[in-house]
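HUMAN: Spend a minute on the protein record below and explain its fold to me.
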Amino acid sequence: MSDPHDELCPPSNPEDDELTLPRASINKIIKELVPSIRVANESRELILNCCTEFIHLISSEANEVCNLRNKKTINAEHVLEALDRLGFKDYKQEAEAVLNDCKQVAAKRRRQSTRLENLGIPEEELLRQQQELFAKAREEQAAAEQQQWYSLQQNAELYQKQMSQDDEDDSDDY
């Protein structure tokens, strides 16, 4: 007779770990939903497997819907129809609400990411200013290199004078 635990929580296989949700994420969700209740590790594993299987089921059905529509990319409407086809009409309304929230957040991010456009400076002017800064930086670099070269040249001349003076001093000793 088989152990019912084996049916609910199949043995962990390293290859299967790639196809599951991160345990830390599941644990966080559980803790947020039921903070005052302890959840056994076996139950956490079962929840993890159920979530993974649910996602697999929905994505497979959404893929079917996508193929029926002769599309190559599964989009939100395909997922919503998959929920409907699988009998999860109650979840469909919640999923639509989450989708609308996600769209609003994405739109807000896009608005925030257009800070350059909000500066009121045309792109051509920004490019011109950038080119000026590059030219100024090149001039400063060239001036610094030239100054360094002059310093090296002066040091070399001083060294040569000192060497020739040392040679004269050495010749006076004889």
About this structure: The chain has a mean pLDDT of 85.
